[in-house]
Amino acid sequence: MAGNPERRAALVDAGVEVLAREGARGLTFRAVDSAAAVPVGTASNYFTGRDDLLRQIDARLHVRLAPDPELLGALLAQPRDRSLVTAFMHDLMARATRDRSGYLALLEMRLEATRRPELRASFTRSVRGDLDHGMFFHREAGLPGGDETVVVLYLAMLGLILEHLTLPGVLDGVLPGVGVPEGLVERIVATIVPDGAGEPA
Q1: Helices 147-166 and 100-113 sit at what angle, rounded to 10 degrees?
Q2: What predicted TM-score, i.e. pTM, was given to this entire model?
Q3: Distance between start and end Cα atoms, the chain
Q4: Phi and psi angles of residue 176, each rounded to the nearest 5 degrees, phi first
Q5: What is the rounded distance in angstroms from the CA atom of residue 58 to the CA atom of residue 160?
Q6: pLDDT digits (tens, 9 = 90+) for 115-151
Q7: Quick check: 164 and 181 in contact, CB under 8 A?
C-alpha cells in the first residue's frame, strides 16, 4: 500500500464527496480518482478494497464533523444549564450544515451498513462509541439531565438534521413562528432538557 499520508487523506475526502453525491453504489476507485483529480489507479494503491475505503471514510468523518476545540473550551466556560446545552446543539447543527457532504456520507454509510454485515458491525461500534462519548461528556461537564436526556436529545437532533439536510421543505412552517433549523433546535432542547443545574446520571 502507498504511504503518502496527504495523498491518502485527499483520496478519503474525495471518497466522502463521491459517497454523498452518488451513494454507496457509485463509490468506486475510479470515481474516487476522478473526484481527487489523480491518475486512474491511484486509489487502488492506497486501499485494499471498498471495505477498507469505507472504514477510512468513517474515521475521517469523525475528524471532519468533530467540534472545534477552541469553541468547545469557550462554551465550557459558561454556566452548566439548559442554555449551554442549547449552544452545543446549535454548534452540532451548524457543523452538520457546514459539512453537508460529510453528513450525507454518514447517512449513506448507515444505508450501506444495512446491506453489509461486516460494515454494519464496525459502523455500529463507531456510532455507539459516539453516543457513549456524548453521555460521558454530558455527565463529566455537569450538564442538566442524565443519560436518558442525552439519548432522547440524540434521537431528536438526528431526526432534525436528517430532515434539514435531505427534505428541508418538510419542516418549513411546521410550527408557525419557529425558525428552521435554529428555532427547532431551541424547542427540542427546551422540551427534553430539564431547566437548572446539572444532575447526576
Answers
A1: 110
A2: 0.92
A3: 46
A4: -55, 130
A5: 21
A6: 999 899 999 999 999 999 999 999 999 999 999 999 9
A7: yes
